[in-house]
Amino acid sequence: MKYLIKAKLEVNGRVDKHDVIGAIFGQTEGLLGSDFNLEELQNKDKIGRVHVDIKYQGTKTIGTIQIPSNLDRVETAILAAMIETVDRIGPYTATIKVEEIKDLRQEKIKKIIERSKELIKLMKEQEPDVKDLIRKITEAEAKPKPTKIKVIEYGPDKLPASPGVEKADTVIVVEGRADVINLMKYGYDNVIALGGAREEIPQTIKELAKKKKVIAFVDGDRGGDLILKNLLLQVDVDYVARAPKGMEVEQLTGKEIASSLNQMVPAHAVRKQLGLEEPSEEKQVKEKPKEEKVEKKPESQPEKEKTVAKPKVEAPKEITAIPKTIIDTINELKGTLEAIFYDDKWNEIKRVKVRDLFNEIKSLEEGSAHAIVFDGIITQRIMQAAEEKGVKILIGARIGSKVESKPEKITYLTFSDLT
């Protein structure tokens, strides 16, 4: 970020941080057109997270507001002036006064200068022996480079996998050991292999698919197509990614791997394209907690009644209170592995990666987030952490099979309940 806007806050009543953030976003929306819409600026990384510190003095709330900006100097000044127009937070009058716009680049330059002075003192006075330097580099290049990649044997089938498969919420299923090694080389620690082309998919993969989101990543050739079709027939895969045409996963560069995964498509669309049916038995286990009982509908009932969402909703009245914009957002979230936090007026507070969701919930102030919508699995520990922080609504891609108890204070829904 280039600049940091610092402002003082005074409210003639007691409010919370999320009230302040909600007021800033709400009262400035559309004020200067879409170019200065705070939500869009955050999505484009033009501004950072709005940071609010408050304390109470009698019946008043005072504090500071900090907004990092990646806009240019003039645009940042306009943004700061716009923030000062917020004159009400909740039911109370409020005043926001910008005190400083700090140029973060100047701060960095100062640090660079000071550190450079220190490093110069560490440098040797004599010039290096160039010939000796070349010799050492040549010798180092000639030696075999040690590898830090360690492939494990996972599950009863002892399948080649990366060490992070067990803890990951999402796993990437590839064909063989060489594919696992190549993805690990570029930082992917949630990869497991089928162990080659085979008619019966290993039980280890089927069990993983019951409790985790699964991305099938296959070669871009005829063999990859055959393996994919076999996998889709037996396992509840969520997304499908393919290597470029004629290439194998083990040959791909880091950029090609990222590009292939970014272009993954929902598995149900691929099944439809190939004329395959869903693996119904696997899917039922995966989407429904083991302890939940679902009454069987009489055969004579209409089809619409048979497809009622399986997860039990503790407070159905909450569903009608979810805005249509959130349902549109759910469709955009699919495949992103992201989570969005909302306040009680459904204003977006922040976005995080699903892999960081648990820690982000634990760091919340109690009552600061009303709802969380995320492209991931609603697990027991996510539920418990959210309940502890006063979250009222959880909306996830699906509910984990190991959920044993359901907090009474939380309404939890899946994407299929709302889309």
Description:
This protein is α/β, with parallel strands linked by helices and 419 residues long. Helix content is 36%, strand content 23%. It folds into 3 domains: 103 residues, Alpha-Beta Plaits (2-Layer Sandwich); 135 residues, Dna Topoisomerase Vi A Subunit, Chain: A, domain 2; 110 residues, Cytidine Deaminase, domain 2. The strands form 4 sheets. Strands 2-3-1-5-4 form a 5-stranded antiparallel β-sheet. The chain has a 5-stranded mixed β-sheet with strand order 9-8-10-11-12, with helices on both faces. Helix 7 packs across helix 11.
Q: What's the tally of helices?
A: 16
Please report the distance between the alpha carbons of the first and last residues. Answer: 37 Å
Characterize the biggest β-sheet.
5 strands, antiparallel
Strand proportion: 15-25%
Overall form: globular
Task: Report the helical percentage.
Answer: 25-40%
Strand order of the largest sheet: 2-3-1-5-4
Query: What is the rounded Rg?
Result: 27 Å
What top-tier CATH class of the largest domain fits best? Alpha Beta
State the CATH architecture of the largest domain: 3-Layer(aba) Sandwich
Using the coordinates shown, work out and report the CATH topology of the largest domain.
Dna Topoisomerase Vi A Subunit, Chain: A, domain 2
Poorly predicted runs are 280-320
